[in-house]
Design goal:
heterodimer; A: alpha/beta; ten-stranded mixed beta sheet; 12 helices; disordered C terminus; B: Rossmann fold; six-stranded mixed beta sheet; four-stranded antiparallel beta sheet; 12 strands
């Protein structure tokens, strides 16, 4: 096992790179990123991030190599992934699975037919070694290491994550999935995901994350970069169910070329503080971006989530649908940006954010920024904040349904538009999660 | 059997029923008529424990037990059903999920999917409702008539023993009204002991569903009780109470 002591300095950054036997340019990039991280301030907006960065373990490698057969995986760890249903999903439903445990990959496998099509689905470290040209071409180009403090941190200490390259004219019939798990106390997970969907290709990627509960805070600061080439489509589905002591500070961004489509489907359950605003840069003409999100803020939780849509190409379209639920004193807020630039003529953006607040202790705010710089384009914005409608509750209860169950039905109804975007298996699971019938750990 | 004893209720600080008495025996069909705002709907809502309707005094006894302390869902699970005047639309909750949840709540066990689908198919056919309605959100995009038929569909699925129909005939065209009437009659035929409490302004529905008692309500009290004949008189004369009360001394008068 290779573990760094708590806290971070330049020497530790160098060590991570050495552990990984990385090329010189990556070590330099990491060190430069560390300087940026050290000099950048915490975000001056949004929820307070009161995390003791010196108390975090930034790198921990538990297993020596990535297996492609579950029989070779540590028995207890294997049992965990069996329990959360991942192995069943792999057999029945997925085209490939990648698992990250703490800082490094643990298991990776993909259907042979995808290998035959030259699809690359690897952990990001292996991709750097096996496919250096393509890696260097894209890595850090969309989310630069000076983007924000936590993107800088990720760029300095990143480990693991998913690398996907789909060659031109390739359609994947089934999704690929990665699963990230933190099992150690005070652990930081900094995976780096890089996805390239080449011209005229189609990918559905699913990401799941969990961590068990510890009394001390953990940090998840991921960076996701997605390149959607001409006429390609990428759908990125995440259901995150972090335990309630995880700071979840993630930078997710996609750039979409002509005629391409990027679809974010983003579910945020759990964590202590989540700050996440998946972005689409609609660079090419006729490109499209959508972001469908739900956030559930329970007791002591802050979900500060939303989306960003930057229209650069002409005739571009974007759609944001955000559904937030606040209960038990939680805070679920929408923060979003839509910008239609001067050149992006004949573009259209639609933003709809709905919040339901289940009790008087909970709260929600909406922080939308909508900018339209040309006269041929338009932005529509609609926001609602509601409580459970007592009349609807009465109607359901008058049919014998208890108040709790009726409330649950109404919440399910509230997020129906999100559930419809999920593969059936995940929709069922989301129901379980929201009902609180499972423990803090999500199934996938 | 439902017994309402000296019931006084209040909504938004206004007394809407005042020392109201009514007994409905198993198997009976009662009709309450009266102009708007006399407390007809309030009666059904207080029986169903709608939170805005507060009982000031009196009691509601169902099958020998007071139900005043029971919540809406507990009353429903005792077999009390209210077909509402304005059935709500609930976005995102499908009729199918709703009905399955309701049935499993009432039976306190999971629904057998096969028998559920079979029963639902029959009920849909009986009411001439489109097949795909089960997968649509509750009452979403339904016409007025479809909403009312959906109330009857729920009744048939949930098997209640005491059924209140609050203006089930309003907003319903002639064909739909006949379908509703036929279904009410068939349900009664299949379940002899069930009783209906029908709230209406008109006698249209009563051409299909023959009542045992007709009550006329005024200012929160029953001012006249009679048979189906009384309903016909009202249709001829309107709610001209002086005339009705003086001319119809044939029926028994429960309100005294």
């Amino acid at each position: 096992m290779k573990t760094l002591s708590k806290g971070l300095d330049k020497e530790k950054v160098r060590k991570i790179s050495k552990f990984k036997n990385e090329p010189e340019w990556m070590m330099k990039y990491r060190l430069e990123s560390y300087d940026l991280f050290a000099s950048k301030k915490m975000p001056e907006w949004g929820p307070e991030i009161d995390i003791k960065l010196d108390n975090i373990t930034y790198y921990k490698k538990v297993f020596d190599k990535i297996e492609n057969n579950w029989d070779n995986v540590d028995k207890d760890v294997k049992a965990t992934f069996t329990d959360i249903g991942l192995r069943k999903a792999e057999e029945e439903y997925l085209a490939g699975v990648h698992v990250q445990y703490e800082s490094e990959g643990l298991y990776s496998n993909m259907l042979k037919e995808l290998r035959d099509k030259n699809v690359i689905f690897l952990d990001t470290d292996t991709a750097l070694k096996k496919h250096p040209e393509i890696f260097k071409k894209y890595f850090g180009k969309l989310v630069k290491n000076d983007d924000n403090k936590f993107a800088a941190l990720n760029s300095a200490v990143w480990s693991g994550g998913t690398f996907i390259y789909v060659p031109p004219h390739t359609k994947l019939d089934r999704p690929l999935q990665s699963y990230f798990r933190i099992d150690s106390k005070n652990m930081g997970q900094f995976e780096r995901t890089l996805i390239i969907v080449d011209e005229d290709s189609d990918l559905h990627y699913i990401e799941g994350c969990t961590a068990p509960t510890y009394s001390d805070d953990a940090l998840h600061a991921a960076v996701v970069e997605i390149f959607v080439e001409k006429n390609a489509r990428c759908r990125y589905t995440t259901i995150q169910n972090w335990s309630n002591n995880v700071y979840n500070l993630v930078t997710k961004r996609a750039i979409v070329e002509e005629g391409g489509t990027m679809e974010w489907v983003d579910g945020n359950i759990g964590s202590k503080v989540t700050m996440k605003y998946p972005a689409c840069i609609l660079k090419g003409d006729y490109s499209k971006g959508t972001c469908t999100t739900i956030a559930l803020a329970d007791s002591m939780q802050i979900q500060d989530t939303g989306a960003k849509m930057i229209h650069i190409g002409k005739h571009t379209k974007s759609n944001i649908l955000s559904k937030s639920i606040a209960r038990g004193g939680g805070n679920a807020s929408y923060r979003g940006l839509v910008k239609i630039t001067k050149n992006a003529a004949h573009s259209y953006a639609n933003v709809k954010c709905d919040t339901i607040i289940l009790d008087d202790k909970s709260k929600s705010d909406t922080f939308p920024t909508n900018i339209c710089k040309n006269n041929e384009s338009s932005i529509e914005h609609e926001a609602t904040v509601s409580k459970i409608d007592p009349k609807q509750l009465f109607y359901l209860m008058s049919r014998g349904i208890s108040e709790d169950k009726a409330t649950e039905l109404l919440i399910m109804g509230f997020i129906d538009a999100f559930r419809e975007e999920l593969p059936l298996e995940y929709a069922v699971e989301l129901n379980q999660l929201l009902k609180g019938e499972t423990s803090i750990e999500c199934k996938r | 059997m439902l017994e309402i004893k000296d019931l006084t209720i209040k909504v938004e600080n206004k007394i809407v029923l005042n020392k109201f008495n009514l007994t409905i025996n198993d198997g009976e069909i009662h009709v309450i008529m009266g102009p708007n705002g006399v407390g007809k709907s309030s009666l059904t809502k207080v029986i169903m424990a709608e939170p805005n309707y507060k009982v000031i005094s009196g009691d509601i006894i169902y099958n020998g037990e007071s139900i005043l302390n029971l919540s809406t869902d507990e009353r429903a699970r005792k077999g009390i059903f209210l077909a509402m005047q304005n059935p709500l639309e609930i976005d995102g909750v499908t009729n199918s999920d709703f009905l399955r949840t309701a049935i499993s709540s009432i039976n306190q066990k999971n629904v057998n999917l096969y028998s559920f689908i079979k029963k639902l198919d029959e009920a849909k056919a009986d009411l001439k409702m489109p097949d795909e309605m089960v997968h649509r959100s509750i009452n979403k995009g339904f016409s007025g008539g479809e909403k009312k038929k959906n109330e009857i569909l729920q009744m048939k699925m949930l098997n209640p023993s005491f059924v209140m129909l609050d203006e089930i005939d309003s907003g319903v065209d002639v064909d739909a009204l006949k379908i509703v009437g036929d279904n009410l009659n068939n349900y009664k035929k299949e379940n002899k002991d069930i009783s209906y409490l029908i709230i209406t302004h008109y006698t249209h529905l009563l051409r299909y569903v023959k009542p045992d008692f007709v009550h006329v309500l005024k200012e929160g009290k029953v001012v006249k009780t009679g048979s189906y004949e009384l309903a016909k008189q009202i249709e001829d004369n309107g709610f001209n109470f002086d005339k009705i009360v003086s001319s119809a001394n044939t029926g028994s008068d429960q309100s005294e």
